[in-house]
Structure prediction request, 441 residues.
Amino acid sequence: MNERTTLKAADNGHLIIGGCDALELAKEFGTPLYVFDEAYIRAMMRVYKKTIESRYGGNGNVLYASKAFSCEAVYRIAQQENIGCDAVSGGELYTALKAGFNPANIYVHGNNKLFYELEEAVDAGVGGIVLDSISEAEVLDGICRAKSKTQDVLIRINPGVEAHTHAFVQTARTDSKFGFSISDGSALEIINGVLALKNIRLKGFHCHIGSQIFEKQSFVLAADKMMDFIKHVKDETGFVASVLNMGGGFGIYYTDDDPKLKEEDYATYLTALIDGIKGKAKELNLPEPYLLIEPGRSIVGESGITLYTVGTIKDIPGIKKYVAVDGGMFEAPRYALYQSKYCAAKADDVNAPCTQVVSIAGKCCESGDLVAADVRLPEVKKGDILVVFSTGAYHYSMASNYNRNFVPAAVLVKDGKADIIVKRQNYEDLVRNDVIPERLK
Ligand SMILES: *Cc1c(COP(=O)(O)O)cnc(C)c1O
Prediction:
């Protein structure tokens, strides 16, 4: 684990998170249980916000990428920290609004936003809609005309930089389903199309080069390309972008394959990005754009852990050992989706020396249903509480009811207090929308 003041081992070896003993949390709320450390979430929101203030004169904002973990409490925290958020669906927008989020600080994304999602965004008065096709721009313009409103928009651009964890590639043309390519002229074409529409107001551009990125240069290169692009658009059309949204993608620690970053390291990433933009603005004689960034994983990822109870242990001698837990791909889908790696420990003795390598299996009827493969653990037995680290992002938000399992509860911990922020589902929740038609009765 990436130890810190709010995530550490107590003298008796128990895992402490946000001042709460993990074993007590498991006892009180049951397992599987998502636990979120509020202090960490706030600290990460603050480090980005403060860096924009101190290094860029406050000329920008942080938008929490809510797809990483969306629930009312997390929007409340973001709002209290004075940052914005993005929403990628009507559901995320609805949740943010229900939590009382200021719509002016919400940006709406998506490569195929539905008609009603666009309408709802306009009705809510969101700060920006990030366009991803000319047909969408036309539909949105029509919606705004009908409602006598003008909506600020950005256009999603592909800078031709794709980053994957420790490496990045520059491509002439990306094959992404998102955005418009700078290199083939398609970006300029949609800009001209959008500028011709009367009920939407183009403010600038957005890009998002990938996720789980540790390579500082990839952010700087993307910023360079976006600034060059802003200059190119100015020369070709006279339009000067006043907003630049550089997306998210800062990486986090899952295993020793990843660097262990501290808060100040994230400030360093953002500072490099900001310095790149400032330098380019000077070089190209452009105004410094209002900067938006959209970190998701780096805000909530390491704030979260999942607690499990060990069930069946199956040792296939010389081949593999499975430690089955009461969760699985329904609540931890990233192994099944991407073969993601994790660290785990015994919650009653987090620093116990690891003596074995096991696969942590889920309880679903799929052989690929692992929470994590090849995890180093001490000896464990049925009934032990296991903790898997760095599960705050893309776990709860990607959970399902596969095999009619319950989506677990989430609790928020701070200074020794634990509060439910998402209730555990129950059997009634599972059948709530089931209908038996008359002819089957
Ligand atoms: C996923 C996504 C993000 C957040 O990415 P992280 O890697 O979680 O920081 C930000 N912006 C857009 C457009 C995204 O699709």
